[in-house]
Design goal:
By secondary structure, the chain is mainly alpha-helical. Helices cover 51% and strands 4% of the residues. It starts with a helix and ends in an 11-residue tail after the last helix. 8% of the residues are buried.
């Protein structure tokens, strides 16, 4: 099980990323628009840098929903390989046939 503080920090990042997503995308569109003047694009970049760092979706870490493990997480299942193996052994994952020989 991962530390509670790191799990909560990641949840806070997810919340901030969702909250600032619209503002961030509008500013990025202005900053990357070649038809606008350099001053307008530069001010958009400055406003973008004033937003909280944790509001960027790139800072959100994929974590296991079951254990909170940060590495080896399957995106489709939102679960780590270890948790998947344990739940598969118990027969709790529909459609998963775990074989061992």
């Amino acid at each position: 099980m991962a530390k509670k503080s790191s799990i909560e920090k990641n949840k806070r990042r997810e919340r901030l990323a969702k909250q600032y997503a619209g503002r961030r995308s509008r500013l990025k569109a202005i900053a990357n628009d070649e038809s606008l003047s350099m001053e307008e694009r530069f001010t958009a970049r400055l406003k973008l840098s004033e937003l909280p760092r944790n509001s960027a979706k790139e800072r959100v870490r994929n974590r296991c929903e079951v254990t909170g493990r940060p590495r080896a997480v399957y995106r489709k299942l939102k679960m780590s390989r270890i948790a998947l193996r344990e739940l598969g052994s118990k027969g709790l994952v529909p459609g998963l046939v775990k074989s061992s020989w």
